[in-house]
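In practice, a research group might receive sequence data for several interacting partners and want a quick structural hypothesis before committing to experiments. The following worked case mirrors that situation: the sequences arrive first, and a predicted assembly follows.
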Amino acid sequence: MKQILHIFTKDARRFWPEILISLAITAAYICIGPHLWISATDDRSRLLTNLAGLLVVLLPVSWWILISRVIHAEKLVGDTQFWITRPYTWKKLLTAKMLFIATFVVLPFFAAQIILLAEGGFPPQLLLPGLLYNLLLVSVLFMLPLIALSTITSSFARLTLTILGIFLCFIALVALLAFASQNHQVGTMNQPLTRGICFALVVLALAAAIVVQYALRKVWLARTVLLTLTLLLCLVSFIAPDKYLVNRNYPLMAANQAAPVQLTYHPDFHSIGTAFYQASSRMMIQVNAPLTESNTAEGVALIPDGIRAEITASDGSHWKSEWQSTSSGPILPGGVSPLVKFSIPLAELRKFQSKQLHLHLSLAYSQAQAEPARTFTFSKGSFTVPDFGICSPQMGWSATGDATGINCISPLRKPPLTYIATRWTDSSCSANAAAPGLSVTGAAWTGELDRAPAGFNLSPVAKPDIGLSNADNGSENRKPRFLCPGTPVTFTTFKLVRRTQTTFDIQDFHLPKTTVIGNQISIDQIG
Amino acid sequence: MTNSTIHTENLTKHFGHTVALSNVDLAVPEGAIYALVGANGAGKTTLIKLLMNILRPTAGSSTVLDIDSAKLTGQAFERIGYVSENQELPEGMTVGGLLNYFRPFYPTWDRALEAQLVRQFDLPLTRKLKNLSRGMKMKASFASSLAYRPALILLDEPFSGLDPLVRDELIEGLIERAPETTIFLSSHDLAEIESFSSHVGYLEQGRLLFSEEMQVLSDRFREVTVTLDAPAPLPANLPPTWLLPQSADCVLRFVHSGFSDLASQREIAERIPTARDISFDPMSLRAIFLAIAKAHRDSGAQLTAAQEAQA
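A structural hypothesis for the assembly, expressed as tokens:
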């Protein structure tokens, strides 16, 4: 312990300027951080919001410098370091370095998170597990890689070059895969299993590389471990057996099981819109299939997560997509008709477009059940929505001083999947109070179904997007609508019930028509 | 257990296809001041780094203070001092800070000796290492490696590039420690180690050509001049201990590497019956090294020529 504290004290004395700068940035972040979630209404608050955004970048940069400096003080690469022929014990050296990082990086960050949560109006003592989980994520996904890379590099410059190199390789790989892949796959990283495997891989490999370096100083071995980790992550992230993962997470419904939704194909239920694309055989064209839903039980929401399309032409030719992510919103009983979308390469589209097709769709979706709705009265002040967050009027660009939306913040992560409904007024609140006019429904989905105790964020306060529908009057001049005090706002939170897979067949399906105009192709799309 | 402070057996190190060290067998007795001599690139630094477990051997083994070099770590360094011209010191520290920092690592750290070394080397305690001259840095490194009275001190080219004054100060400091420690140092300059070394080893192209006590080395080498009755060519099948033989008219000269007063006289008389006069002249260390190096190169060239002829 004596040696650990001795090395720790030496580092603290030696790197006091770096420590001071890092702590100053943390202090500034504590002071200005709340502007990240407070809506900017004037130039001063906009400036502070921008500064807070800058601090979110500067904070990890200061950690980067501090971690690099302290690890490289007793660097592990090379054979000319003073400490390797002194009575250092590797375990004590490693512990001293970890103690330094815990004291000057982790602890100030943790304190900042607690203070910012309290600033946001959330009691930190009730959110301790989430705070610790957030700390774990930031430590494992940001600090641990920095420590591991510092152990295999000899200086800050080399570490920076290595990080830039890794970013370049990552960008190149993603670009390569995007070009090579003909289909947008379901984001495998979003699947809990893949996420869990990746997290475990990252922790194990980074810890192994660090221990190998401190215990043996075998740079090639530590680099091999990190390289293997990168390759494994690439494999899991990009070449993961999607079919297996989707089938595992979204089991097919049993034959005797009633489908939670009835989908019906309506070929005439559409309008035609034209979209233009550059003529490239690699271009993916989005195809819409107009379906209507029925039979969805009250209080149930279906969230389409993935889609796979299989096209068979009358002449026997065939095309099948991989699992693709879908941008369709949740399906509610009696809600807007679902428009199922999938993507097909332009070359395939042109091959099949004039043929009569049989379309077989596989849909992977999450089924969620509504919790009892909670109604709050909209006021000029903020109001707390339990298990959701704190909401307040969005004053934004209203000239009359009336609210033009709702702003909400939630602690440590996005709120649970919630349907928010309220009523807009076309006239200003003062005019509406004098002569109440017609009100229009404004509704929005926000939050997410899969929720870890905290997200991988530097800010402990999340600000979910709440884009209420019908926010303007829809006329040519698009005047904003207002939310007036006294208006009821209903929050309906949904909880995941199950994930499942269903199939749907369209016997007489036609792909959109294409027209070549110069080097562009226009697609008459069902809208 | 061995009786040597340092012991190596077939110690070999390759860097890719380059052989830096080849089958080195070395024994440094306790209390010796052992000088490892060789030209730049001979493998001296590699050997010391292998002993210090900074590098791992390709083959062979070594022990330092009866500890396998490959396991030399942590507490073992409490009894070993290592100073190298290439060692990176924590440049941001002051000399005083460096000594203060190292002190708690060594249970045997002697504060009185530290103060004496600071005085002796005239070390500026408040100056940062990065602002010191090369000589001053080396002095600071010496002080931080001598103050805990190590049982073994390894010095890699400690005097390289230093002015004579600093070099003498360091040697003086080193000699003062000699009675209680074993010193192993490398140098490419014979003159700087000749005066105080008790043992010497010569490394050339990764091979240890010899390793022995300085006095024994001086005693067994003689420059031999044989005066003949009449001009004669070099006799065939000369003993391998006769190095660099050459003849001119009635004089035959060579270096005897196994000199023994009476036995050598008798041996020469037997091999060269026409010898009229034989004289044996003692050699300087420099002359001995040159003879060995030249003989080694010649034998290497002869071997290569023989191999080429065979091929």
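Before designing any experiment, note the following. DSSP finds nine helices and 14 strands in chain B. The mean pLDDT of chain B is 87.
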